[in-house]
């Protein structure tokens, strides 16, 4: 009741708010249905950044050559490209309590980007493009 009064006073039509909510859900479902999309969470490597935490929401990624295109934010409208140079070490099991939203057995992969920074990627299952053997062939 109070929220509707505040919105009325501010002059925001209710149909605009409903339209934005429908647009957000439509865009999320459209992104998830694209071929080659897989759920991920990305954070800076904790060894180089002590305060790095896993994001709350699940992002969705897609591979284009050696670039992971990650769609973030609640509406999946923020797009971040990660140029992958190589995989650091072997994939490890992640703590499902720490990395929520990716199933019961998430996998952690440390990835070196083209600018030589390292990020951690949490996946529901190991994607073939992140297999360490793929990057060892070219070295």
Would you give an account of this structure?
The chain has 139 residues and is α+β, with helices and mostly antiparallel strands. The chain has two domains: 1-33; 38-136, PH-domain like (Roll), CATH 2.30.29. The chain contains three helices and six strands; from the N terminus they run ααββββββα. It has helices at residues 2-10, 14-32, 132-136, and strands at residues 38-44, 59-64, 67-72, 78-93, 107-113, 118-123. The chain has a six-stranded antiparallel barrel with strand order 1-2-3-4-5-6. The longest helix has 19 residues, at 14-32. The radius of gyration is 18 Å and the shape is elongated. The model has no long low-confidence stretch (mean pLDDT 82).
* Gyration radius, in Å: 18 Å
**What percentage of the residues does DSSP assign to strands (E)?**
25-35%
Cα end-to-end separation: 63 Å
* Helix content, binned percent: 10-25%
Low-confidence stretches: none
Quickly count the helices.
Answer: 3
* Level-1 CATH class name of the largest domain: Mainly Beta
Per DSSP E runs of 2 or more residues, the count of β-strands stands at 6
> Overall 3D geometry?
elongated
Strand order of the largest sheet: 1-2-3-4-5-6
CATH topology grouping of the largest domain = PH-domain like
Describe the structure concisely:
The chain is of the alpha+beta class.
């Amino acid at each position: 009741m109070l929220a509707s009064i505040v919105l009325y006073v501010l002059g925001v039509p209710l149909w605009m708010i409903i339209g934005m909510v429908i647009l957000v859900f439509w865009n999320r479902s459209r992104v998830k249905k694209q071929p080659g999309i897989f759920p991920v969470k990305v954070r800076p490597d904790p060894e180089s950044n002590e305060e790095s935490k896993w994001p709350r929401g699940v992002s969705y990624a897609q591979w284009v050559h050696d670039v992971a295109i990650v769609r973030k934010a609640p509406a999946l409208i923020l797009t971040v490209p990660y140029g992958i140079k190589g995989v650091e070490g072997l994939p490890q099991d992640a703590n499902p309590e720490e990395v929520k939203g990716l199933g019961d057995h998430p996998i952690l992969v440390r990835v070196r980007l083209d600018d030589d920074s390292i990020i951690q990627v949490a996946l529901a299952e190991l994607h073939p493009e992140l297999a360490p053997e793929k990057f060892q062939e070219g070295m």
